[in-house]
Amino acid sequence: MPSRDIALLDVAKTYPLKRGAALAALDGISLDIANGEFVALLGPSGCGKSTVLRIVAGLEEPTSGSVSVGGASPQALSRAHRLGVAFQEHSLLPWLTVRQNIALPYSVAGRKIDGAHIQDLIELVGLVGFEDARPKQLSGGMRQRASIARALVLEPEVLLLDEPFGALDAVTRRRMNRELGRIWAELRITTLLVTHDVDEAVLLADRVVVMTGRPGRVRHIEDIDLPLREHSELTRTPEFHDIVDRLTGLLDATKDA
Amino acid sequence: MTRIDTGAAAAADAPIQAHGTDAADQAAASPLRDAASITPSTPAVTRSTPFVLVGRFLTAVLLRYWPIILLLIAWPTWLLVNGYSRAVAPSPLDVAGDIVLHPDVYVWPVVWTALFAIGGLILGMLVGVVMGVLVWMSPLVSGLLTPSALILRVVPVTAMIPILARLFGYGSGTVVVIVVILVFFPAFSLTISGMSSVPQSSRDLFAVLGSGLRSRVWRLHLPAAVPSIMLALRLSAPIAILGVLLAEYLLSGVGLGDLLQSSGDRLIYQRQWASALIATALSVICFGLARTAERKVVDRVT
Amino acid sequence: MTAVRPGTQSAARAGMRPGLRTALYGLVGVAVLLLIAELIGQFGLLGTTWPPLTSVFAFLADPANHTLLGNALSTTVTEAAVGGLIGIAAGVGFALLASLVPVLAPGLDRFAAVIDAVPAVALAPFLILILGREGTPVLVVALSTTFIIYISMSSGLATAARPYHDLLAVLGARRGTRLRLVDVPAALPKLFDGLALAAPAMILGATIGEWFGARRGLGVLFISAMQNYRIDLLWAAAVLSVLCSLVLYGAAVVAQRAIARRFA
Q1: Calpha distance B241→B279 (Å, rounded)
Q2: CA atoms within 13 A on the CB side of B232
Q3: Chain CA centroid to CA C31, Å
Q4: Percent helix, strand and coil across chain C, each rounded to 5?
Q5: Who has the most CB within 10 Å: A54, B24, B174, C137?
Q6: May I ask the CATH class of domain B87-301?
Q7: How far is CA C125 from the centre of its chain?
Q8: What are phi and psi of B83, to 5 degrees?
Q9: SS3 at position A70
């Protein structure tokens, strides 16, 4: 599958407040994500990590600095319908069935709906038997599966995940992590995941970027070089715990500061 | 459940009406807001010449009133194209001229119409709110009355006026009765839905404090209903004017509605148009006053 | 009213489903209302102007009156339907226009507010000149419907939550595509709320329009019956207009509930 790299160079974002004051949300963010790499942005809530994702998605413009996706602007990629995204709020349209929701990107792109491909994706995310259900008939985990299937349906060159499991309970979240890991291993698309869950970041990503808040800055980048193993086994290894402990320590330190 | 029915009808009224005026308000506020946000960030704009200011003012006017401007242009054009004579389609000048030259013709009709509308509005609001409170206090009575209220509410005022005229005569008393009835229904149903909108936690608090029904109504539910009651006032203001005009049109020998009717009958078209214009202005003023009152009162209670 | 109270209270105590109890209360309430109206007529409490309801329904049932009432009814209903359809189309159209071309929105909003404040009577001379006395009712209906539908549709178009807009932006949707796939379906519940409000307004608008010199219709019947002391005819026409409004309103509410279940 074709893929793209992401490059952020010295990105800053400020929001104007009343009376000429301004709120600095991001400052000096530089980050390169290679072709086919899975990077997790880890940080406490309000540190601006979602803003980074929104800038990469082309939903917001940086106040200064530059962002490029595959050498072009993010908007160029979304206009070409080559960007996949899943938000914390599943944002499935309540009046469409699971199948119709997953087919939505085809309608947006004005392309013919590929029913077989959609069925493959429904199998990939484990929603067989729920194709004709409406979102409100599904559990939270199933909605996120549908939302991820929708993000993948046009075979995007970049996948953006903004706390996709943030609204789920711990058990479901762990299971969804396992499945996302399996799906991603098959596709290997350039992926940016925003999360506040250390386990999730370490389990899924090739690299974890730890951010500090107000204004959001990159504090630390951790290369994850764990052996490829079943997640349930991996989480019990001392190497995994070392990394999680160290990153959690960094997050705590940012909270103190 | 029955409460929800009236509530739903009222709630359906509420956001719709609220949106209309909100949109208008936002439109009114936007040039100010734009100025505020632009001025500090781009200092060049602060040194704007009068020319730029006038330009910006004209743009704002055009943005907000383009359909009306379009209408004012389309109207004479259409008259010209169809070749209507000035007797049938008086020009704006004829209309304005009649108002200026014969103010005595218009003064009393305006006073009467305004008095009937405002008197009926106040009376109808009072009756509606009092009945609403009484009915709210008894679930049984409100359950019995809600569907009937709905039926009475859809009676077209055009059917109501002739019947009431036969019952109460063709005089001014009937005009007031009609306005009271028209204003009653929104006031009644919005009072009930407003009183029912109190959150459970506040009800629990008053229950724990051991307060009686009267104190709960007076201190909790009635204050909570004030925004809905004021909304009813705003919704009713144009309805009251319409009711008075329709009633006068058919019944009494006074008021703008009568002037509209009699001048049309006597083919004095510029006078008919002028009274239509004045009636519109009166309605807009009434609506504006009601909206201002609503804002002031709601500001104080919330 | 005291006569029915014990019955309904025991029904409540027997633990009926709330929906059923509401319906029962409502039915009893309507029955009481009709009974009071009937008794006022039977005993002549308000004079000859208030006939017993039974005689009004007898008048309605009498085939001798069917031509007169039927003509008036079909005229008014046709005006309401034609004006209503024009108004719905115009209201939805203007709301979509304001959504697609936001520059136009403030002007349209303001214009809608002015239209609402203008009393229909005041528009009469203007409307008669445009469409003549027979066309005026349709225009009055169309104007009031346009206002209600424009306001409800444009507030509906603004209801779609921001995450949906973000999603569509990332997927590379143009404004028109977003409107079609997200905003319009999300607006349907509010649109049907508006239709329920507009339904009685259509009948009212048609009868108001008929007052300005139309030759047929329920509105004409109201006036001529009043002037000719035809009390039974006046009431029969009034009952028909109320039934029309209720049927339209009921249909709109049923549709609105179905739509709300699916789209909200």
Answers
A1: 8
A2: 30
A3: 23
A4: 85, 0, 15
A5: C137
A6: mainly alpha
A7: 24
A8: 65, 40
A9: coil
Fold of A6-82+158-256: Rossmann fold (3.40.50)
Closest residue of chain A to B43, computed from CA coordinates: A20
Beta-bridge partner residues of A160: A85, A192
Look at B162 and C118 and tell me if their CB atoms are within 8 Å: no
Who's near A123: CB < 8 A, 6+ residues apart? none
CB B180 within 8 A of CB B120: yes
Angle at C197 between CA C77 and CA B12, to 5 degrees: 170
Neighbours of chain C (3+ CB pairs under 8 A): A, B
Segments making up each domain of chain B, as ranges: 26-84, 87-301
User: Tell me: the pLDDT tens digits for C133-177?
Assistant: 888 999 999 999 999 999 899 989 988 878 888 999 988 888 889
Residues 6+ apart with CB under 8 A from C15: none
H-helix or E-strand spanning residue C252 = helix C231-263
The residue whose two tokens read 């204003």 is B183
- For A84, the closest chain C residue by CA position comes to C171
pLDDT score of C204 more than 60: yes
Domain coordinates of chain C in residue numbers?
5-49, 56-263
pLDDT tens per residue, range B182-234:
999 889 988 988 888 888 888 888 878 777 788 888 888 888 899 999 989 98
Residues of A near B (CB-CB distance < 8 A)?
A: 16, 19-20
Burial class (CB in 10 A: 0-12, 13-18, 19+), C163: middle
- Burial label, A26 (beta-carbon count in 10 A; 0-12, 13-18, 19+): buried
pLDDT of A48 strictly over 80: yes
Question: What average pLDDT does this structure show over B93-107?
Answer: 86
Mean pLDDT of chain A: 86
Encoded tokens for B113:
């119409």
Tell me how close the Cα of B266 comes to any Cα of chain A, in angstroms.
59
Cα gap A180→A141, rounded to integer Å: 12
Backbone phi, then psi, for A46, in 5-degree steps?
A: 85, 10
Provide the token pair at B94.
């004829």
Q: Is B36 a residue whose pLDDT tops 50?
A: no
Residue ranges per domain, chain A?
6-82+158-256, 89-155
Of C237, C243, C225, C231, the residue nearest C50 (C-alpha):
C231
Going by C-alpha positions, the residue among C194, C244, C235 that lies closest to residue C79 is C244
Nearest Cα of chain B lies from the Cα of A21 at a distance, in angstroms, of: 10
Helices (H) and strands (E) in chain A, counts: 9, 9
Quick one: pLDDT at residue A125? 84
CA distance A20 to chain B (A): 6
With contact defined as beta carbons under 8 Å apart, do C177 and C118 qualify?
no
Token duo for residue C161:
């939550």
What is residue C68's predicted lDDT score, i.e. its pLDDT? 92
The encoded tokens of residue C102 equal 């936001």
Q: Which fold has domain C56-263?
A: MetI-like fold (1.10.3720)
Look up residue B256 and give its two tokens: 């703008």
CB atoms within 10 A of CB B38: 14
